[in-house]
Amino acid sequence: MSAYAAEPRLVVRGLDVRFDVRRSSGADTRGAEDPRAEAPRAESIGAEAHVVDGLDFELRAGEVLALLGESGSGKSVTARALLGLVDPPGRIVAGSVRFEGRELCGLDEAAWRRVRGREIALVFQDPPATLNPVLTLGEQLCEAPRAHLGLSTNAAAERARALLAELGLDGGEPWLARYPHQLSGGQRQRAALAQALLCEPKLVIADEPTTALDPTLVAVVVELLRRRTRELGTSVLWITHDLRVARMLAQRAIVLYAGRVVEEGPLGELARAPRHPYTQALFAARPGAEKRGRPLSTARGAAGDPTRWPSGCRFHPRCPFADARCAELSPELLPEPSAGLSPGLSPGPSPELGSERAPRRAAEAARESSNARSRSVACHHPLDERAEGAG
Amino acid sequence: MSPSAHLLVARELTKSYAGVARGSFGAPRSGAARVDALVDVSFELAHGERLAVVGESGSGKSTLVKALLALAPLDRGRVELAPRAGPRLDWLALSKRERSHARRWIQPVFQAPMESLNPRRPVLASLAEPLFVHGLARGSEAETRALALAQRVGLEPETTARFPHELSLGQAQRACLARALAPGPELLLLDEPTSALDVGLQAQIVDLLAELARERSLAILFVSHDLDLVRYFADRVLVLERGRLVEAGPVERVLGAPEHPHTRALVRAWGAA
């Protein structure tokens, strides 16, 4: 890790992804999050869906960064763009993705093949679509370690068995002889995760990897990833709308709304003192005993059509605090002057995470970086005013 | 509430499946042990009460929902149903014909809203159908009532003219709620009703469900992995482990001071961090 101390492991600048929806007649933006969620309707044919708009972020060795946002906010497209997997009618219009000092945008397919799976692995949301239905788990899990690491079939299988066992797939079952259809949803999801982690990639991009898992298994997955970040310095980009799991694993989060970052900062701080009304609505929506009897939802409706985002602050049509200015002001993502200055208020990782005993360089680096980068879209409604409104 | 206020009384619900152990190519292996999906599960549900069912994958939650909907025959057990607006029923012992009438009292909402709507009919037709089936309205009156229901759950009239694949996930789940409400049920059974939705959509649907339950005095039985949702929404909770009811009681007590080791493990896994 120290060799790259000068630059974070992953540096994304001005990433811009658009989908030409002319050709895909009808309501479909394939690859743009869940195709069923708020897809552009017929009237938007002939337009361009601006799915990711000027995304900037950094990720350090051993750090877990959560990418939060609702369906249609551009999370999954971001994941694919980082691996050069945006297919037509989508394309990366602008931006730079630097991984360990090397530019990835514009690599040819042969170069990409050496990066994908080996250096950067992607865990998809949908394990049935990840796993090959006509191969056993053993056949598909061992392929990458043999190709990338030159392991023998036996060595690869041994490694796969050990990792599956770590994920709770042990107990004498011949898991590697199983076909995907013989597994439950939760077992498939863990197999897909194992496949991504087998080559010990430096960066894991996980797109909603725990949605099919019950809480007991989520805890197992979280523990495994935590161990990987600690022992191997693996970096994780954790794409999710599950704030609870995000807080279990990630130190820092980026909140994406309508293709743009609206806020970034340490997760604990975002939850405690959200600066942008969307972040506030996102955290308010999470149920809990203390909210009994009160409505959860403060943002009405949905973000809408990516070919025609609202002017000004894109959240304003749904924002309970919006006024006329919100549709006009061009919002800017500003660094938060307060962040990082007061050590008492900037603990970095969420409190639950801070209890780890041994000092760990990766976690230290992550903490520093989380102090260095807190920013939010300027909202001209002061937070205390909003707090009154919400109460 | 007094015991006579029970809408549903379930006694000794029991169901086992043939073992699922499989050999090569998925062929069932002979001699596999039977799996207990439900073992002597008994509980009551009061009118207007919100009951959550929690447990790990494979604990029998979905089997319980299917059993209460009389969609999967049980090996043993009895369910008594006492709707306020109808006669007392021995729910599982009804003939097919009697039960199809009585289904108006218990209505389901499933996890995957898209797959729960008829893909070949506009949404409005799916909303009006329960009204026809239960003889509650016909012709233009059914349409008017279906439109009113759609509006109540937040669907515009033009949305109801669309087919399910043209809806967003949130709209589809609203449509499923409207359809469930159409025949005037007293109990909604929800199997992970919001787990396919993101946190913002989940909040909207949960809020809507709470409003509807209040204004129609609906009882709700819902299955969820989300203990925070259970703490927020449920009055009482049942904890299942391998088909057995290991703990039941008020939410604050069961999740706040769990007595059974399995409940403790669930609560711990939820809070693990």
Walk me through the structure:
The complex is a heterodimer of chains A (391) and B (273). With 391 residues, chain A is an alpha/beta fold. Chain A has a single domain (2-41, 48-119, 201-390), classed as Rossmann fold (3-Layer(aba) Sandwich), CATH 3.40.50.300. Helix content of chain A is 30%, strand content 19%. Chain A has 12 helices and 12 strands. By secondary structure, chain B is of the alpha/beta class. Chain B has a domain at 3-18 and 35-116 and 185-271: Rossmann fold. In chain B, the strands form 2 sheets. In chain B, strands 6-7-8-3-9-10 form a 6-stranded mixed β-sheet, with helices on both faces. Chain B has a 4-stranded antiparallel β-sheet with strand order 2-1-4-5, with helices on one face. In chain B, strand 7 (187-191), helix 8 and strand 8 form a beta-alpha-beta unit. The longest helix of chain B is centred in the last third of the chain and has 18 residues, at 199-216. Chain B is globular. Chain B starts with 5 loop residues before the first strand and ends with a helix. At the A-B interface, helix 7, helix 8 and helix 10 of A face helix 7, helix 8, helix 9 and helix 11 of B.
Mean pLDDT of chain B: 90
Q: Termini of chain B, distance in Å?
A: 39 Å
Task: Give average pLDDT of chain A, whole number.
Answer: 81
Which consecutive residue ranges of chain A, at least 5 long each, have pLDDT under 50?
23-44, 338-360
What value does the Rg of chain B take, in angstroms? 19 Å
The third-level CATH topology of the domain at 3-18 and 35-116 and 185-271 in chain B is: Rossmann fold
Radius of gyration of chain A: 21 Å
Class derived from helix and strand content of chain A: alpha/beta
What is the secondary structure topology, with strand pairs?
The complex is a heterodimer of chains A (391) and B (273).
Chain A: E1 10-20, E2 48-59, E3 64-68, H1 75-82, E4 90-99, E5 102-103, H2 109-115, E6 120-123, H3 127-130, H4 137-149, H5 153-166, H6 185-197, E7 203-207, H7 215-232, E8 235-240, H8 243-249, E9 252-257, E10 260-266, H9 267-272, H10 277-284, E11 333-335, H11 361-372, E12 375-377, H12 383-390
Parallel strand pairs in A: 3-8, 3-9, 6-7, 7-8
Antiparallel strand pairs in A: 1-2, 1-4, 4-5, 9-10, 10-12, 11-12
Helix pairs in contact in A: 4-5
Chain B: E1 6-17, E2 35-46, E3 50-54, H1 61-68, E4 76-81, E5 89-90, H2 96-102, E6 106-109, H3 113-116, H4 123-133, H5 139-152, H6 157-160, H7 169-181, E7 187-191, H8 199-216, E8 219-223, H9 227-233, E9 236-241, E10 244-250, H10 251-256, H11 261-271
Parallel strand pairs in B: 3-8, 3-9, 6-7, 7-8
Antiparallel strand pairs in B: 1-2, 1-4, 4-5, 9-10
